[in-house]
Amino acid sequence: MRPIEIPADALVVLTGPSGSGKSTFAQRHFAPEEVLSSDALREAILGDARDQTATEEVFRQLHGAAERRLREGLIVVIDATNVMVWDRQALLRLAERHGRPAVAIVFDLPLEECLAANSARPGRVVPAGVVRRQWRSMRRSLPHLAAEGFDPVQKLTSIVEVDRAEIRLLRGASGGAHDAEAESPPA
């Protein structure tokens, strides 16, 4: 598998159902300050990542922090399900406002793998029906991600692909010629 090339000033939107490996992937490939996680914000605000009562506040803060990083020309990785078009559109508007590229990394794993990983999670297990709905929404979105404005759209279709994926951050002009490259550390 070729490395996923990402401009160093990009908005990176991780997309996939609960249990697909987004958070583990983000922790493995990006520095903590580069990742904005809806679950981590829920934990910080409410003391419980499972508490959905402050979703509006969580995403207001997530979008505010993302906008600040994009304005400064810093990479920002959004670790949330992002399976609904309106969630992605709000993020794409932030990238567009600051002239930054938007990259989608889609965790298109089989539903059974997501359900199994979700049920094995320590602490926060999402109801299976919710994971199924997220998975169906993600699958419906797949053909439209490039047209929405993501470039590239990188699909990971198995746990093996997720585990073997490498990230190459491209330094220099967004999406153009790059002065230097930095690869993510090996897992």
Query: What structural class results from the helix and strand content?
Result: alpha/beta
Question: What order do the strands of the largest sheet run in, or round the barrel if closed?
Answer: 3-4-2-5-6
> Which architecture does the CATH hierarchy give at level 2?
3-Layer(aba) Sandwich
The proportion of residues forming helix, as a percent range, comes to 40-55%
Mean pLDDT: 89
Assembly classification: single chain
Shape: globular
How many E strands? 8
Give the amount of beta strand, in percent.
Answer: 15-25%
Regarding CATH, which class? Alpha Beta
Rg calculated over all Cα atoms: 16 Å
- Major sheet: size, sense and barrel closure? 5 strands, parallel
Number of helices: 8
CATH superfamily: P-loop containing nucleotide triphosphate hydrolases
The tally of domains stands at 1
